[in-house]
Structure formats: structure tokens, C-alpha cells
Amino acid sequence: MDASKKELADSGNLKIEWAKNHMPVLEQIRKEFEAEKPLKGRRIAMALHVEAKTAVLVETLAAGGANVAITGCNPLSTQDDVAYALDCKENISCCAKYDCTNAEYYEAIDKVLDMEPDITIDDGADLIFKLHKERRDLLPKIIGGCEETTTGIHRLMAMQKEGALEMAVLAVNDAQTKFMFDNRYGTGQSAWDGIMRTTNLLVAGKTVVIGGYGWCGRGIAMRAAGLGAEVVVTEINPVRALEARMDGYRVMPMANAAAIGDIFVTTTGNCDVISTEHFLKMKSGAILANAGHFNVEIDLEGLKKMSTDIKTVRKNIKEYTINKNQTESREQNSNKSGNKHEIKINVLADGRLVNLAAGDGHPAEVMDMSFANQALSVKYIAQNKLSHGVHKVPAEIDEWVASLKLKSMSIEIDRLTDKQRCYTDDWEAGT
Amino acid sequence: MDASKKELADSGNLKIEWAKNHMPVLEQIRKEFEAEKPLKGRRIAMALHVEAKTAVLVETLAAGGANVAITGCNPLSTQDDVAYALDCKENISCCAKYDCTNAEYYEAIDKVLDMEPDITIDDGADLIFKLHKERRDLLPKIIGGCEETTTGIHRLMAMQKEGALEMAVLAVNDAQTKFMFDNRYGTGQSAWDGIMRTTNLLVAGKTVVIGGYGWCGRGIAMRAAGLGAEVVVTEINPVRALEARMDGYRVMPMANAAAIGDIFVTTTGNCDVISTEHFLKMKSGAILANAGHFNVEIDLEGLKKMSTDIKTVRKNIKEYTINKNQTESREQNSNKSGNKHEIKINVLADGRLVNLAAGDGHPAEVMDMSFANQALSVKYIAQNKLSHGVHKVPAEIDEWVASLKLKSMSIEIDRLTDKQRCYTDDWEAGT
Amino acid sequence: MDASKKELADSGNLKIEWAKNHMPVLEQIRKEFEAEKPLKGRRIAMALHVEAKTAVLVETLAAGGANVAITGCNPLSTQDDVAYALDCKENISCCAKYDCTNAEYYEAIDKVLDMEPDITIDDGADLIFKLHKERRDLLPKIIGGCEETTTGIHRLMAMQKEGALEMAVLAVNDAQTKFMFDNRYGTGQSAWDGIMRTTNLLVAGKTVVIGGYGWCGRGIAMRAAGLGAEVVVTEINPVRALEARMDGYRVMPMANAAAIGDIFVTTTGNCDVISTEHFLKMKSGAILANAGHFNVEIDLEGLKKMSTDIKTVRKNIKEYTINKNQTESREQNSNKSGNKHEIKINVLADGRLVNLAAGDGHPAEVMDMSFANQALSVKYIAQNKLSHGVHKVPAEIDEWVASLKLKSMSIEIDRLTDKQRCYTDDWEAGT
Amino acid sequence: MDASKKELADSGNLKIEWAKNHMPVLEQIRKEFEAEKPLKGRRIAMALHVEAKTAVLVETLAAGGANVAITGCNPLSTQDDVAYALDCKENISCCAKYDCTNAEYYEAIDKVLDMEPDITIDDGADLIFKLHKERRDLLPKIIGGCEETTTGIHRLMAMQKEGALEMAVLAVNDAQTKFMFDNRYGTGQSAWDGIMRTTNLLVAGKTVVIGGYGWCGRGIAMRAAGLGAEVVVTEINPVRALEARMDGYRVMPMANAAAIGDIFVTTTGNCDVISTEHFLKMKSGAILANAGHFNVEIDLEGLKKMSTDIKTVRKNIKEYTINKNQTESREQNSNKSGNKHEIKINVLADGRLVNLAAGDGHPAEVMDMSFANQALSVKYIAQNKLSHGVHKVPAEIDEWVASLKLKSMSIEIDRLTDKQRCYTDDWEAGT
């Protein structure tokens, strides 16, 4: 290993070590895996954000006896030092780099699948999709997969609905100890960590527009309010819209929110949440960030076309300049002699997951819970024969993760007494 | 009608009118019911908290063509003026009074059932329980029932599990537009309204212990924090315990919380959440309130036995005095010559639902949504043949209630574009 | 004492006893006063809200050896049972009744002054004003006064500026342990207690407009947000306006806020904060409450003139109906055949202090601190010769009150070490 | 300029440009300075954190006609690219580098003073201190200085008290538009930005101990709660301690807090807030950060002596390992055979200002206000003859800054009507 390589590995290992020290649940599982080797002989293909917390999961799986090949699940979320450190470890190969092209991205997916996995772990379902479209020969060998994120589950449910899903998948995202914590408290904090460190701007006193009030959205909204912002929520679901309002936020269509927002964060899982009609209404200087899985929520193609100038004004910030009159005249074919009016729009991290592309991703402690679910779900797949389709994570895994987490925080809770257990089962006690 | 009766009716009607003006969703439904008479000829027996908002529901059902007989579902939650005003209305009979004895309470249940209902509406399942235990002759005539509260659903699920439920029941409580709003924002506010007006004490700077972090519990915790309290949560469920901690609250067993709490609010649906072992550890002057359905959460029998003195120190507040040494010596048979040490414990509203027994119950706006679900569920029962067992409220009712509520608040929300709808259904779009 | 009188006294004493049990600082002072009799032979005239907490102060002063005569400082804030109970006590005479006329109000002020006081205690400066305008003969006998509220201090400073203040006054309101707690946490909670119990409406999801971001205003805003409201602040001071914005609230002129508010609370100390131009812009059903000292903040005279109908729709709520077209046509002299458009405006407690006129006033614990300052200020006046003019409460009183309060809450804090004290005094230590 | 120098300047200028775009008040002042040249011929010596926002102030002063020489005020807060970019500008010389030694630090102070300034701008009073101790020859030329921070003012007041202050100083820190915003909202956010990006740990669910509840401390506490932490405050001032409690936080001595904290942030301005007695009680893994001006709040010397191992575990994080038994045995001379028990303590940024040493400092928008006060105070010094001693910033500067800031945020506020102005001045209006 030459000096610069060694430095890279050292830097990666330092990060991994730090993460490991803050992931006590996974640490406990690793110890058990080391003793029991429940994944002995398994080949696991992974496509996750390649950074320190993921590395701890990878090591845990390897400790359980598996061979692991991993690539990224997002072109901007890979940390090269961690990737290299992982690749140096036994029974682990890592094929991912920061800021790869789309071609490189999919090439890496292919390379990971070349290991002929029997288990997959996805964050966005790219491995499973590739398997079903181009690598169908590998499907028969698969005994099951795990999916980490809402967007991926959504995609898999769509596949299942069309009868196109030909493998078993555990919906790890839908474990309570995953989505209620990782999506809410994890994204809630890490999105703002990313935005604050990237912009060095004050959140207090700003109008923050959150696109989508799902678990991620409510986490981001909660923290925005906690940082002193006025929060505006956009939604398509009336029940969620009502919830947002009862939580004290303003609720309105994006077409109205566009004109008043200082910072926009999208987290819907859908495309074009902010699109050309909205850019034109924005205040000059608006900040746009995405915290949803894919980079489709902000219509960057549309924005690019409208812009007269695009430049990097700070690390991870691109400023798009729209000449409003020109745009409007183009659209409305009106007189061009009007006063020039420029809108400058700042897009963070090219509309990719702002917490990962412009930060270090979720805090270690929430990933501890999410990845504990992953590790135990992989073990469950290895030990049970599952039918094709999307499956729930068994409730006992969920409860076990929660209990272990509480223990690591030295928090004790009550237990039902016998009398209380009887009362619970009894339906005869009344007023 | 003599003068005092008239005054009673006027007072009741004024309250009903005020509530009606703040229940726009139910108002919309009433108009449709008046036009369509979907409940024509139906006999509906109800056991709900007899106060103004409930009266608006009763009137709505009567407007739909039904005959309605109603009694209370809690000995301390009836407002006599509203009860009388209701009883004066056409096609409605009301049989409920404030502070009735247990005997009177069950007598009234019986009297309401005497109408030979085909539909029941319960809040705690007392009607359904009575039907199954003592009035089985009436069961064949029942086409279905509605249940309003978590506790009732819990009871009914226990019955169903034992094969003892012989009628169809719609779990109105479990509609999203019910439990997420009524239980959380409704109980969250009304419990504190009740506690504040009853005690005139400051919440800020106090340690508030919440027993249970279900939907009611988290509403009460959220508002306690919003009022400046330090919040402590007790739980038996590890996932909820973790959530409470991530929400910034302290989590511990009641045995520890007992010693540090200034105000205790129980909301578990279970018995003995605060019991004899806890009273002894409390600070003198502790305030105890219950926001769960039944008055079993605080072990008042146990407290009474331990007390050397019980007196009313303010309206709706009973002060129990425990002589700690005496109690301990009784228990430990130790030397009685020790210094006397008194603990004074203040119980609000005799441990009954504090928001109703010491206040006016939930704000009209949340009951608007809950009772809109009730009215539409009753209509659904009247128009569909349902099998025995607990049924979900149809999703379209839920969504319709939310949409109508948003409209009444002049809130518009986004709709999916065609492109977005396609994206949602598509599973091929990736990174 | 006849039976109904005895009942009245009992009811009053029960309330006083409850308050006393939650005012540990004043209790400590009472013990010292009883032993030392620092007010022996003093005659103290008071005009404060006559309710239970005030009664505890009155008893404390009497315990110190004083003769006390008290009346109210607001026509709607007197509680008759407490007034009667006080009047029955030795060395205390109370002359106040609920819902008195203006004439009765000022008559009572006079009657209290008839005792020829040497010390006054005011809440709004009405005693002092009367002394300077009509009872100047009594001025020479006065050795000093105490003023409880921002509004009163404001009035006294205006008098002093004009050279019209001919006695010494301690600005009790300006003690840190008074205004930072009573005005902020006290008003913050009690205003909402009053509004919630009076309306039984949901605060969550509503737009609440707060007129003024002084210490009262920020308390009310903080609690409104804590109850789930969207908060809008109006201000005239740019620094406070900025603070409100940084605290996450919307800031705008009342002319804009009028159109979007669901609940309005004024707390500026000034007149016409909400006036005729604003009423016309309001949503029908808007709720108006005042938490400022005098009932001048909402222009009720103007509202009355605009209204076609005024009726009581619930206890303490008057509904004013404005026929918008008529009003506009009257103003604009336009065609009267337009469609009728009614706005209904609900005013709580006739625009008087909502926490007192529609509630029980501040929680006992904050009044404990405010009245501890009063009691110690009275003692200070009795023992020191002060020049004419407005004086600060001595810092040692402030600190003593805070320390005693912390002790009563079992809270310990750090002390400076010798090294830290040196560091504090040293200016040579640098980077 | 060689390539790497050019890159450095470009990087610095990009940062300055970004900051400038978010400092509209200073921008407005710069325009006026350019037109009026109020500082023509002035020589200004500065010791501030050399980063982008400061650079905008420096440029503003230069635009006003001044010659400016600047160095840092903290060894770890200089950003080298900004320093270089500044040094390249006309009439500006910058002498500061990141991670300088103490000797280099004071050398740079001297070098800046070599310009023979007539005005100084300090952040911590190091220039003024140097002037009074070693460069007294320069004192007669000084017409005044500005001080930016609480700690500096504190030092200057101590000097003044001892009669040692021989120049005029404007207490810029004490302008309302400075300390209420910069110290509270600025430090509140930037301290957490620094901690989150440095640790990548979750704040939610952690116990955060804040040393000191001054304006910085309450900002940090507010944001900690907003990020989901349980907040514990330590104080020496009883009034502030009470405030912290009423704000919902736990209050206790550091000796107790040490045992329960996960993250500690000091912000007292004093030394040894966390010291040897506290380290020993801490949970292993505790995170320690300082947000006070000097690096004296955490006793690092003491910690170093207790530690058996010190290593960098992540950028800006040093882990100190304490062998508890050894330490105790050393202290207690007890048996050494006990079980080894290690405590690992993580110190961020060597106990220096965490927001600057491990982040980008305050958000631009708050520095806009602080530095607008600086620029206008410098102009005020240039145009007025001030006596020796600490002076307040004139109120009109404060109000002007606030108004201009509101305008830049497009926020309008109310103005007093004539009637209201009369009411304000009138003391005769009563109940």
C-alpha cells in the first residue's frame, strides 16, 4: 500500500471506528454473529450509501460469515476513504466512488451482481430492478432481499402489483424502529446539518417550505421549527395536510408557497415537486434542497433551460439565474423592452439527497437501529424460506431492536403486572 | 315548561348553538341528511358524553330520520343543561344526569336499550357489553354499532378474540381523522384546559409525568412541553418509549417518576398505572389527573385505604393525606415513634376523565371530525349489511372528512399531476 | 353570620388556602413578618385584583402589623367570595364587588383612601392618580407606594416627566423576578386558560394574532405556539418585531393580520390596537381577547356603532354582527342593493383582562414571586425614607426572592469558586 | 500571483461574495460610506475572527476611506483563504493564520498595532489590553475603540472599575440589535452546526448540559430543545436559573449534571466551568464543546493530567482516556487491584469556540446586524469626541439597524397613530 492509499484507508477506518462506537445495537449483533456465524457461506450484494455507518453494517455481515460486495446507491453519497478502507477488509469488496457518472454508477451495480449473490440489500431498489431487467439469470439464486427506503418499497409494491416481483423482499424501511426514527429524527437532523454547513445561513426568521409531510417531511418540519423558522408544508394527502396544520404549520399549494419561501426542502418521493412554474415565482436568493431519495423532486432540467447563467457560488451550491422578463416574454411572446428582472436560485448538491451529498448522512445512532434491522432481516432471510413478494419485518425483530437500544441508553421502562395483563384481556370491566 | 326548566333548556341550547357554529363538517352532513333521510325509521341507542358537541351529532342523526335515545358514558361527564335541552327535541330522548351513582348509570343504559335499537353508538362499549350480557334478546335486531374510543375498541377486540362478539361494529376510533386528531390534539388541549382551570397552578417549571405514550399521551406530552413543563413519560412498549425519548422527554418507570413528578396524567387504558407503591414515594402536593377512558388508572381504592384524611380543597380537587411513617410502620411493623411525615396528594375529578369531568371536553373542532366519522359510519351501517366483528371505517369516509375539514379552513392543497401519477406507479425510474 | 354569608366566606377561604399552599416564598415572608412586625401601625391602601392570591398578600401585610384596606383595580376581576372572606379578617377591610359600575368602582377607591394610608399598593396606578387629582390632602401623609404593572409604571413615568408625581413609588413591576415571570409565564398561561375555558375551541391549527411583543406578548405567543397555533405578531418597535420574527413568528401590520387571524389577543398597553378599520377585514367568527391592563386595546365603542346586532352567545362571549355591505355603503355612500355580507365578531369578557375577567388570573406560583416583591417593597418603604419619584426595587430583594423560590422548588445552583471570582474581576487574562 | 495563491484568493473571494449577498444592511452602509467617505484618512486596527463575514465589514470600512489592518482574535478561527483574499485588497492588510501558536498570535497583534491606529475594533479586548500594557506610546493617538463581545466588555468594565481604561470604547456587544440576535440566534445555531458536523451524532434523545444561561446559553438551549434534546442548565445567578426552569429545562449544579450529560456546551465567560471533579463523574463517550469566547471554560490542563491516553478520533475531536481507578487510587491512595474502569471524554476543537473553530461561525444574517453596528459605531467615533470609558451605542444606531434589517426582509410593522401617541403620554386615563 503506498502512502496516499494508506492515508485514505486510515481516514476511512477512523470514521468507521467513530461510527462503530456510536452503534451499540449493531455491536451487540456483531458479537452474536461472530459467535454463531449465521451467514456462513452467504453472498450478499449491497447498494447503499457508502459511508461510515454502512461500513459498520458491512463488517457486521462479514462477521456473520458472509462474503459482501457493495456499491453506492447515489452518485454523490460515497465517501472515498470509507470505500477504500472497506475494500481492504477481508471478505468485503467495495466498488464505489464519489461523483461517478451515471454510466459508472450502473456499471458498479453490475459488478456487484457479478458475485452471484443469494441475498441483496438495496436503498432505492436499484439492485432488484437491475436483476429483474438485465440480470434475470441471477434471479433463481436469490433467496431474498432487504430494502432500506420508502422510495424503494414504493417501487417494489408497484412491481408486485403488476406481478413483476420475482423474489422475496423484507421491507426493512417499514419496521417501526426504522422509519419512525431514521426517517423522522435522522432525516430531520441531517437535512438541516447539510443545509446549515453548506450555506452558513440563519434558519431562524426564514420561511421554510417543506414539500411532503411523510415521516421524513415531518422530521424536517419539526427541526425547522426548532431552529426558529416559519414552516410551510405542501401536501397532496388531505389527512396529512390537516396534521401539518394542527402541528402549527401553514399549508398551501406549492404554487403559493413558491412566492414566500426562503428555503425549500423536498421529501415526497415524487418528481417535479418544484418545477418551472414555481421557479418563476420565487424570491431571488431562494435556497433549494432535496431530502428525498432520488434527484427528481426539483426539476433541474427545466431550471437549466430557463437559466441565463449557472455558476458555483460556494461548495455544493449552484446559482441559477433566471431573467424573468425574458422567460415571460418567451412564454407570453410579449414586448421585450420591459425592465430586466433577475431571479437567482441556489440549488444545493445538485438536488441530490442533501444530508448525504452535502453532509455525512444520518447520525450514527439512528443508523444503528436501521442497520440492526437490516442485519437481523438478512439473518431471517438466511434462515427462513420466504415466498416471492414484499414481506414485513417480523415484529419480534422490531421489539428486540427497540429494547436493545433502550438498554444502550440506560433507559428502563415499566412492565405489565399480572393484574394489568388480565385487565387488558378482559372486556367485562366497565365504567 | 316552568321557568327554571326553561332556563336550563336555554342554557343547553346556547351551548349547542356555539358548538354547532364550530362544527362545519357535521353541519354539511346534517344538510345532506335532511335532504336524503338515510336513517329514516332507524332507532339509534347512544352512550356518549352528554355535552354540547355530542348534541350536535344527535341532532344530525335525528335530521337523517332516526329516533335517538342517548345516555352518558361516564358518571361525571354529563352536562345537565345540554341533557335537558336534548330531551326536549323531537325524536330524541335523553336520559343522563351529572354525578349519577353507578346504579343510576347502568339503569340509564338499560332504559336507552329499551327502545330496541337497530344501531348503537358507544364510547367505551358499555351498550354493547350490556347487550351481550343481559339484553341478549335485543341482539338479533341490531344491524351494527359504532365505537368511539381506543378503550372500547380494545374491549371489543378482546370479545372478538374470544368469539364473544355477536354483532358488527365499526371502529370509528381507528379512522385516521378520528384518533390522530381527537386523541392527540383534542385530548392534548382539553386535558390541560381541565387541569389549569381546576388548579390555577403554573405548568411552566413543573415536572409532568405522563403515563402512556399512545395518541392521547403524546398529545398531552406535546402540550405540557408547550406550556413549559419538563416532561417525563412512562411506557411498557419499547418502541413508544424510544419515540418519547427522541421527542426530548425523559423516560423511566413509574416507580422512579413517582418521586419527581409535580403533576401526573394517566392515559394508558389500563388499571393501576399509579398505585399504592407510587403514592408513598410522591412529593407532598402532587397533582393526579386521569385522561384515560375509565377511572381505573389511578388506584383510588388503594389511596383511600392509605389515607388518614380526605377532604375537598377546591372544586373538583380531593386532597388525600398519607401519614408516611404510619403507613410504613404498618407495612414494616417498625417502631412507631419516628417523626410524622405527611404526604398530601391532590386527585382531580375523582380520577375520571379530567377534560370532561373538570372541563367542557374536547374542543368543538376536533369533535367535528370525530362525529362526522360517526354520522357517516351510522349511514354506512344503515346502507350495508356487515358481518359480525370489528370493521374498519371505509377509507373514503376518512378522506372525505379530511377534505371537507380543509375546505372549512380555507386550506387548499396540491394534486398529483399526470406525470407525477405515472411516476408513482412506475417502478423503472431509478437513480 | 347568616348561612349564605358563611358559605361565601368558606368558599373564599378555601380558595385562599389553596393559593397559600402554592405560595411558599410569601409564606416564608409571612413567618418573618409575624415575628418582626415591620409594618406595625402602618395603614396600607390597596387597589389590586381581589382574588385568592392577592388575599394571601393582604394577610401577609396584616401579619406584619399593618391595617389594610383593599379594593379592586378592574370591574370584572373581583371574586366576591374572596372579597367577603377578606373583609371578615382582623385588621383588613375589603370593599370590592364583581361587575361593579364605573361609579361604584371609583367610589370604592375613595373609600379605601378614607383610611388615610401611609403606603399604597396599586395595579394600574388608580390610587395614586386619585390621590393626586382629588385627594391631595392625603398626599403629605404618604411615605411611599408600590406599583404592580407595566401600564401603571408607564403612567407614573409620564407623571414624573411632567413633574406631577408627588410621592415615592417603588416600581415593583420592574423587578426581574416580577416582570420576567409574572408577565411572561403568568400571562402566557393564564390568558390561554381564560380563552380556552371560555370558548372551548381548539387552538391548534388556528392563526393567532398577538398585538405587542413585550413581556406579556411574548409569553402569550410562546404558549400559543406551544398549543399548536400559527402565531402572527404586530409591533411598533423594530427591534421587538425582529425578535418576534427570529422566534419563528410572522410579523405584519394589524391591517394585514386582521384578515387572517382566528384569535386575536392584545397586550400593548395602548388604545385602539384593534379598531374599526380592522373589524371590517376580519373573518366571520373571529375571537377577540385582551390581556393588557385596561379595556382600551379593542375599540369596543367603534365596534358597537358598526354592529347591527349584539348578543351573548356563551358565558363571557359577546357576538357583534357587522353587516359589511351596509357599513361599507354607509362609508362609501354606495348602492345599498348589494348582497348582504355579515361578519360575526366574538369579544371575550368585554375586552377586559381575559385571564382575570374570564378566569382565575395568574397561577399562584408566579404571583408568589410578584407579591413577595410587593411585601418586601412595602417593608422597604416602611424602613427607608425615599425621595419623590419612581424608584427601582433594590437588587437584593430581587435576588432574595429568586433564591427563596429556587429553594422552594428544591433546585440547587452553582456558586463561583474563588478562582472563578478572580477570573471575573481580572482583565488581564486573554486568549 | 502564483497558481496556488490565486486559487486561495479565489476561494476566499467566493466566500466573501456569498456572505456579502446575505448582509443587506452592511451593503446599504457600504454604499453610503462610498459616497460620503466618513472614515477618510482613518487608520483602523482590528482583531476579529478572520472569516468571510468579517471581511465584508473590513471592506465596508475601507470603502468609507479608512486604512485597515486586521489580525485574528482566536488561534483557530482564521480561514486562510479569506485572510489571503483580504490581504490582496487595497488599503487592507491582513496578518492572521489558522492554528497559529500563542507567540505568533501576539506577534500579529503587535504587527497590526504598528500601523499606529486611531480606532480599534476588538473581539475580546486583546488590542486594547496590549495597548495598555505594552504599547502605551500609541494610546494618545487613539480616539476610540469598539468591542464586539460580552467577554471583552466584561474585561473593559473591570479595567474601568480599576481606573485603568485610558481610551473611549463603544460597547457594540451591548447594542440590542447585537447581543439579542448575534449571541442568541447566531450562537444558538452555529454552535449546533459546529457540533453536528464535527460529530455526526444525533442530538435528539440526548441529555445536553449547557453551562450558563446568558444570551448565548439560552440560544444554545433553545436550539438543543428544538433538535430534540433533554436540556440541563447550570447557573450561578438565581434569576437566570429560575428562568431556565420556567423555560422547561432541568437546572442543577455542574457536579450533578456531569453524571447525566451526553453533550456539554459551556458559555459562561468564566474559567473551569467543567473541571477535574466533573470529568471523573462523566459517562464514557461524553462530548465537550465550548461556545464561550476564551478556551478556559473546560479545564483542559486538568484533563490532560488525568488522562492515560489522548488521541484524535475524528477531525476536530480529541479523545481523552481517564482510568478512573487509577485516578481515584492516586487521589485516595487506595488498593490498586480494583477493576480498571475507563472514561473516554471527547473534546471538540480543543475547547475553543466550537462554532468558529469547527464551523464557519455565525450565519451571515446575524453578523450583518452586529457588523452594521460596528461600522456605524466606528463612524460615530470618527465624528464625535468621546471621553475615556465604556460608552453605550447610541439608541438611534440600534433602531436604524433594526429598521433596515426588517426592510431587507420585506417586513412592515405598525406605527403609533396620533391618538395612540397621546394615550402613551397621558397618565390620566384609567380603568
From TrEMBL, chains A, B, C, D:
<comment type="pathway">
    <text>Amino-acid biosynthesis; S-adenosyl-L-methionine biosynthesis.</text>
</comment>
<feature type="domain" description="S-adenosyl-L-homocysteine hydrolase NAD binding">
    <location>
        <begin position="183"/>
        <end position="361"/>
    </location>
</feature>
<feature type="binding site">
    <location>
        <position position="183"/>
    </location>
    <ligand>
        <name>NAD(+)</name>
    </ligand>
</feature>
<comment type="function">
    <text>Catalyzes the hydrolysis of S-inosyl-L-homocysteine (SIH) to L-homocysteine (Hcy) and inosine. Likely functions in a S-adenosyl-L-methionine (SAM) recycling pathway from S-adenosyl-L-homocysteine (SAH) produced from SAM-dependent methylation reactions. Can also catalyze the reverse reaction in vitro, i.e. the synthesis of SIH from Hcy and inosine.</text>
</comment>
<feature type="binding site">
    <location>
        <begin position="291"/>
        <end position="293"/>
    </location>
    <ligand>
        <name>NAD(+)</name>
    </ligand>
</feature>
<keyword id="KW-0520">NAD</keyword>
<dbReference type="InterPro" id="IPR036291">
    <property type="entry name" value="NAD(P)-bd_dom_sf"/>
</dbReference>
<feature type="binding site">
    <location>
        <position position="235"/>
    </location>
    <ligand>
        <name>NAD(+)</name>
    </ligand>
</feature>
<keyword id="KW-0554">One-carbon metabolism</keyword>
<dbReference type="Pfam" id="PF00670">
    <property type="entry name" value="AdoHcyase_NAD"/>
</dbReference>
<feature type="binding site">
    <location>
        <position position="178"/>
    </location>
    <ligand>
        <name>substrate</name>
    </ligand>
</feature>
<dbReference type="GO" id="GO:0004013">
    <property type="term" value="F:adenosylhomocysteinase activity"/>
</dbReference>
<feature type="binding site">
    <location>
        <position position="123"/>
    </location>
    <ligand>
        <name>substrate</name>
    </ligand>
</feature>
<comment type="similarity">
    <text>Belongs to the adenosylhomocysteinase family.</text>
</comment>
<feature type="binding site">
    <location>
        <position position="182"/>
    </location>
    <ligand>
        <name>substrate</name>
    </ligand>
</feature>
<feature type="binding site">
    <location>
        <begin position="149"/>
        <end position="151"/>
    </location>
    <ligand>
        <name>NAD(+)</name>
    </ligand>
</feature>
<dbReference type="GO" id="GO:0016802">
    <property type="term" value="F:trialkylsulfonium hydrolase activity"/>
</dbReference>
<dbReference type="GO" id="GO:0033353">
    <property type="term" value="P:S-adenosylmethionine cycle"/>
</dbReference>
<feature type="binding site">
    <location>
        <position position="355"/>
    </location>
    <ligand>
        <name>NAD(+)</name>
    </ligand>
</feature>
<feature type="binding site">
    <location>
        <begin position="212"/>
        <end position="217"/>
    </location>
    <ligand>
        <name>NAD(+)</name>
    </ligand>
</feature>
<dbReference type="InterPro" id="IPR020082">
    <property type="entry name" value="S-Ado-L-homoCys_hydrolase_CS"/>
</dbReference>
<dbReference type="Pfam" id="PF05221">
    <property type="entry name" value="AdoHcyase"/>
</dbReference>
<feature type="binding site">
    <location>
        <begin position="214"/>
        <end position="219"/>
    </location>
    <ligand>
        <name>NAD(+)</name>
    </ligand>
</feature>
<dbReference type="GO" id="GO:0006730">
    <property type="term" value="P:one-carbon metabolic process"/>
</dbReference>
<feature type="binding site">
    <location>
        <position position="270"/>
    </location>
    <ligand>
        <name>NAD(+)</name>
    </ligand>
</feature>
<dbReference type="GO" id="GO:0005829">
    <property type="term" value="C:cytosol"/>
</dbReference>
<dbReference type="InterPro" id="IPR015878">
    <property type="entry name" value="Ado_hCys_hydrolase_NAD-bd"/>
</dbReference>
<feature type="coiled-coil region">
    <location>
        <begin position="303"/>
        <end position="330"/>
    </location>
</feature>
<keyword id="KW-0378">Hydrolase</keyword>
<feature type="binding site">
    <location>
        <position position="362"/>
    </location>
    <ligand>
        <name>NAD(+)</name>
    </ligand>
</feature>
<dbReference type="InterPro" id="IPR000043">
    <property type="entry name" value="Adenosylhomocysteinase-like"/>
</dbReference>
<keyword id="KW-0175">Coiled coil</keyword>
<keyword id="KW-0963">Cytoplasm</keyword>
<dbReference type="GO" id="GO:0006556">
    <property type="term" value="P:S-adenosylmethionine biosynthetic process"/>
</dbReference>
<feature type="binding site">
    <location>
        <position position="148"/>
    </location>
    <ligand>
        <name>substrate</name>
    </ligand>
</feature>
<dbReference type="InterPro" id="IPR042172">
    <property type="entry name" value="Adenosylhomocyst_ase-like_sf"/>
</dbReference>
<protein>
    <recommendedName>
        <fullName>S-inosyl-L-homocysteine hydrolase</fullName>
        <ecNumber>3.13.1.9</ecNumber>
    </recommendedName>
</protein>
